[in-house]
Design a protein that fits this description.
This protein is mainly α and about 200 residues long. The chain has helices at about 5, 20-50, 65-90, 90-120, 130-160, 170-195. The protein has one domain: Cytochrome c oxidase, subunit III, four-helix bundle (Four Helix Bundle (Hemerythrin (Met), subunit A)), CATH 1.20.120. The protein contains six helices and no strands. The mean pLDDT is about 85.
Length: about 200
Amino acid sequence: MSVANMIPVTAPAPVLPRRRQLLFATGLAVGFWVILNMTLVGEYLQKRGGDRVAWLKEHPIPLTQPNMQMGTLVFSVFMVQWAVHAIRKDDRGHAYLALGITLVLGLAFINQTWFLLTQIGLPMGSAEGPTFYAVIGTHLAMMACGLIYVALMGLRALGGSFSSRHPDGLSAAALFWHATVAMYSVIWLAVYIAK
């Protein structure tokens, strides 16, 4: 009897399902930002409901910039989803292109918001100033976090960390980006459209 016949044959270890810690943590972060933003929007709506006659009469908000901001973010949703789709197909060139366009659109949104705030000229000492700036500022902070998140996941994708077998990083960044856009749509309706 040879030595090869004496070695017991064992079955291969079962393949465990992939853990999705990054998606789970991103979901928790999204929950935090959504709760914070919705609380501030609720406070804004409550204060606006109490002073409906004089609310934003001295400093009207033009609708051109908020509508362009909404269009920019809607387009960015398609771009970030294109990046996720491309990385799942191992099409790195299109993934990088889509991530780059997403970052440019996010920066354009921040630029449009800054321009809008300078156009309005709403003083902080007015009745609507603190809640208006709290809502807009919190969303800008969320957008900045989204930009950083997409940029970091883009760098990791550039380094080869993500592929069709492991696209979770870009999927998590897309989840955060979608939540940021969804929060802006709430702000767009509550603050800019229903003034």
